[in-house]
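In this supplementary section we document a worked example of the pipeline. Step one takes a protein sequence of length 294 as its only input; no multiple sequence alignment statistics are reported here. Step two produces a three-dimensional model, which step three serialises into structure tokens for compact storage. The input and output of this example are shown verbatim.
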Amino acid sequence: MSHEKMLNRKRVEGGIKALFFLCGLTAVGAVLFISVYLVFAGVPAIQELGLVRFVLGDTWNPQQEQYGILPFLLTSMAGTGGAVLLGVPVGVLTALFLAKTARPGWAKAIRAAVALLAGIPSVVYGLVGMVVLVPAVQRAFSLPSGANLLSAVLVLSVMILPSIVRVAETALRAVPREYEEASLALGATPAETMFRVSLPAARSGVATAAALGVGRALGEAMAIIMVSGNVANLPAGPFTAVRFLTTAIASEMNYAPMGSLWRRALFSIGLVLFLFIMLVNAALHGVIRGAGEE
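The serialised model returned by step three reads:
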């Protein structure tokens, strides 16, 4: 190879490395910009209202300048927890079926369905939930309205399934075949091998799948705003009409005047949501790291 060609090759490689570095720097810069902007936009209202009054206040009434987000915070926690309790077992069991027992034809069809679920826009989930699920919940439990926390949990549990199934299936397929063969050779049944060998060996990937599900459920707004009732109530039960942190921002931002305390309080909700998601992700990453070390 001539000297000129080697120089050209080094220039190309240097350009590619610079491009990769620029892409990474752009991603980091975007996160930093969003973080700094939320801090500067959200802190003033919290300082004016008081942190305890803002976070632990149970009344949200902009007309009387009452801005307590405890109902939204508890609703987001309850809704996300309920969706994870329903969605994670279904998603993990589906992943087990696809990775270990499904015939190729069945596996192909189910993977296509999961990919379709991932591609459906959030507003379509909300529309179907509003037209089909909400009336069904209302009739099943003889309620004045089916738009409540239960409907939101059911919609969220379906929405988080695709990410859970795909990540968990990948983790299960990465389990060394020797582990399962040794279990079967010792007399364990295929079901015992799946639940006592394959699943524990893939627990780090399964925990990652659960973390992705939690992030999707916490950040969703358009679908649940259509099925939750969108009322600032404390989540007293599954049939309570509620409002999540995300839906509070989405439903009121267009009506809050520029520069008003109301608008600044909505930015403060965004800051609280951002910090809440960061804390949850940090806790889940700690669990994932512990599972990987084990």
